[in-house]
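Per-record layout

source: Sphagnum jensenii
name: Glutathione S-transferase
length: 262
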Amino acid sequence: MGSSRNLTLYVDLLSQPCRAVTIFCSGMIDDDDDDDEDARVNEIEADVQIVSLWKKETREPPFLAINPLGQVPAIDDGGFTLSESHTIMRYLAATRTVADHWYPEDLEKRACVDRVLDWQFGNLHRDVAQFLVHRELAPLLGRTKNPTLAAEAEDSLKQSLKTMETVWLKDSPFLAGGSQPSIADISSACQLQQLKVLDKEEPGALLAPYEKVKAWMVAVEDFTAPYFVDAHGVLEKVAKIFEDRRKSEAEAEAEVETAPKL
């Protein structure tokens, strides 16, 4: 199904749900490059508007008119506004011309995608978010890092990774059982990419026991290339900021330890 409506996408790529929608819509973005159509993920165009979370632009009246909840991502499709990343991708799959594997018309296959999306939000999304908050992000939120809660969240995250390895990826290369990715794969892969704000070696160490998860991550990135890497470019910058902060904290602690005792 096609649509002649003008689609506007409101995102901040610091947000995992925004990156998921952006990657799904990468083939939709009108970049004035008519010679690159064969590389598109989907044949739909969108006007992308960046709404800064850091600058609290999601709380300003112009954006609140789009989404009263003040959250990104959101879309305006010819006057019809919508929020929530999974709902947006479902809607675009239904109203635009996209490959069937993203959100199948077959109701049983579609239910399998929805099942993974529901599981992901209640498990993987929660586990990654809690782990990163208590391990790394707490100071940005005006809170103190909590090693105990971080350890608990890490254990829960490992259980989610085990579920991916032994259930969702047991008999197929992608989460919903298909031979090609669905919107559930994009959403989940973007969630795991959040771990890049940790020490460089740590994401690899967390994923090391899960061979199928690692192969799946590579498969999703390859299938959506170059958009997956492009959308996560901002995350690389954030990771560098945290790396520099960790170094500064370590140097400060070393100075305290070596300071002469009075």
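summary: The radius of gyration is 20 Å. The chain is about 50% helix and 5% strand.
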